[in-house]
Amino acid sequence: MLKNMERRAAELTHPADPAAQPDWDDLRLFIAAAESGSLRQAAERLKISSSTIVRRIDKLEATLQVRLFDRLPDGVELTPAGAAILSHAKRMEMTSYELLRAVQGTDTNPSGLVRVSITEGLGTYWLAPRLVELQRTNPKLIIELKCAMESADVLRMEADIGIQFTRPTNPDLKVTKLGRLHIYPFASSAYIAAFGMPRSREDILRHRLVDQSAPQLEDGVAARFLGIDNPEGIVAIRTNASTAHYHAVEKGAGIGGLATYAAVLSDDLQPIDVGFHHSVDIWMTYHPDVRSSTRVSIMIDWLKETFSPQRFPWFRDEFIHPRELRRLKPDGWKVNLVQHMPTIFEVKSP
To answer: Could you state, in order of their start, the residue ranges of all structural domains in the chain?
Structure first.
């Protein structure tokens, strides 16, 4: 123990060669490893090999002449020297992103790349089909759509705009509530013909469920509703993907909780009235500096229109039964992008 303390003290007092300059890419890997507590997890996050991150961390330690991590059986732990360097590295990282956003904010060209991160189901079934209409009106705008249940780190510029179910808490971000997503149980007509229509919570226990488990989704919602500790035995399929979840229900694998707007996507899906209803808020987040970029501002305003609860009632705070949504006339919820073009392309301040 005494030798370890002496070694750590030496790490903090032994000066690095002032002529040696750490590579910024190595510092970026160091930050990722420190935040994840694992070289392997950091490598997966950055999409590089574990051997590469080990080699680059070793190189950084040699450059700085300090040991940054203690290697443990289940991961890594910062040394006192590593903890001190981490705070400086993070400040450098944020400054680099501020520089990039400042450059981006001077761009008044309504063309180029806009990166949008969104949850998989919303991105696939709601946003992607409508982006085609936006792109036709502005063909020089390139939309990079990242559909995933993991939230993108907007501060670290993993995306220009994030749309997610968890509300960001960082005060440096601009956060706007777009609407609310209501979840209701559905089953296909084929499933109901084969196994019958459940009429109560107790009936559900004799049926098969399609379950989704993924980041941003609350675990155990169905089990709590059914009053059971574990839904094993009634779950037919469990998946992390919204697309697989939707299609499994649509093809008759079982009963699954889907967004209520599934009622207007498919006439074959039948709502199951057993007293279950769950909802999550939809949040849009971005750094205020990117609002000065014309192309990003176009996208922000268009997203607000595309998720407008006034135009699309399934995004309202109040729950509307799927059967009521089916009675709406299509003209009542389809967006006419040409008609609303002035509002879409007006650049507004945050």
So the answer is: 2-105, 112-180+281-310, 181-280
